[in-house]
């Protein structure tokens, strides 16, 4: 029998985090075992001050003792944690009387927990220390900073940490090697910093530490703030001595080789075209012994905290990258080469020149599409973003590598001065670090479905950077609805938690910064233009919080977000019209296309939705859902009964009003007022009603027929509601048609047109769309990726029925696909489903993770060779607890383990 040994130990949902600031962090684990029915009945956690003490089973910091509990997590409740300290922990579990093996040790490190723990200064260019206004800063500046120091020759480095931040970005180097890259697109009164392990990077004797940091000014996803850099090194030597190195006026600065007069790429992101002069690169600048005599002393703004940087918050997530080789390099003419990386990535193109000529300028352009002559199109798919680069060579070997990412498939290189080979050009593709980028899998008998799944997975991965981004090309900001959509995929495709937690917390902060008196949230946050909202985005926020909690069990997020969820519910309730009982003229998005509710975006993705009514049906249905989720969150937090009932009452009253005024007896209309209603019966209104359970039982078939017959008449932003509606009505054939129809709008059509990333609109290449509008549409919008979740739920059949996947509903679509297999990550471990049909039989295999149970639903007309499917089974195989019939299906209740069924 397999001994139960916990694995994948996580602190605050991250493995081996260095920047924990929670005073009582959440500790979690999983167990891999092949025994049916295996689960946890008790656990014991040890927390120690060293790995050695932990190895001796000594929890000198905290020992929970054996605790009876099924949930595989615990909140640390030991002595107060100390700043800049590493803690080690391990866990063992029991299944009844059986004790499992101790886990391998895990570690977390704390950050600088109080302002007094900081001794470092914010520094920047000396001429800008006393700047009075943003206009006094050089926009798009890149600055080098360096410092040398010596460590004793006779004492090895035992532990070293760098606590580092910049406004807006930095690359940190030690002894000539880049060791970290960080971003803090946040407001300076709530700024992020990172903790970097330098134990192996530092040496006895002479050392050098340096940073290239940049400030871009305001843009989508980044407030204006001010340029600045801060770094504090805490070093512990083997002889017990300690050393602290901080940014101050002993650091040396110089301007970097980026042209600060370069034009902006667009008006949204605020970044300049990167024109880099390789002759000006200070080679060896981060190595000991570099001559920095012509550099200037750093200008000191002040010791942290100092205006404008009031607070620094540890950031417990990373942006990581990998090298992408070209699929091809095409020589267009004697002077022009075009590199194809195969599909659109978020990344940094790199060109290594073997024999540069000092002063020779190489112009480059990234892009999404090619012209008929094979050159890179400068406009199509890029939303009018200037995708150029330029590099001025120095003599000999030299390398162009930009700092800021873009969405890139093609790279055109003009007049490189040599014939470029494939090994000279690459792309560093960037994405938010996730536990496993292939945690979710899907493969089936329909190749188009496989391709759609991969399109969505790829898009969600590269739409996740320092935050969930609108697009890597034009708007790198974190829009609330985009973030909600991408987060749903990131959680279910990769098992991600940390970036979602950060995003929810940031939108919570947007409420307190801008909307505390109005109950709203920002549409994009953080942001250069400050206060901006979209009403339907605010309405969707409670659902995001609840879905994340259901998957993760992260109670801390519920507690943080609940006051804002309350405010959102009150905001919606304040707009309920007394005469109709409907949400009417929902304030927000004033003076633009977002006013009173966006419905969908871009405008052509509304497909003629009739918005000319004070009460819009989609806005009202989102209000119903917001009340429902507010009630669920209040209940989970054990709030007073009358508080919960208030939300239930609001939900029911609004549902009744929608059915009375927005339902004509057959279908839902787009909107109404007190005396009249729209003649529009859009797919939006009816899919929303079906997805959120508002359709009367006797009208479900008619509504489902209506939306199915329309094909695709919703945009990538709101299409998850359409997929949920078809799933709710059990219209799996219609769902598959929607996903695979290459002739109609949708993902298959994107693939048929050569798209490799989900689009902002199905009409990116629609010749009927005016040229200026078509060119203002992005071909790298990950908000359309939630189709992956629908494939998991409706086709693979995996639904999370209870919090943290403690119970699953598995309803594989065996009647609709000849074969399929896939994996879905959950808090308890991966769920696996596979089946294959042949000669009238179907072999089905299901794996339910440790500490979970599942209800496997099968079509009622099948017979199983390996289990008794009579309504009452007197003798069942191990792990199967019940077999019964429900709503025309055979339901097999199982515990954890792998089950193989042959169906006839």
TrEMBL record:
Residues 156-301 form the Bacterial alpha-L-rhamnosidase N-terminal domain. GO terms for biological process: carbohydrate metabolic process. Its EC number is 3.2.1.40. It comes from Halopiger aswanensis. Keywords: Hydrolase. The keyword Hydrolase applies. It catalyses: Hydrolysis of terminal non-reducing alpha-L-rhamnose residues in alpha-L-rhamnosides. This is alpha-L-rhamnosidase.
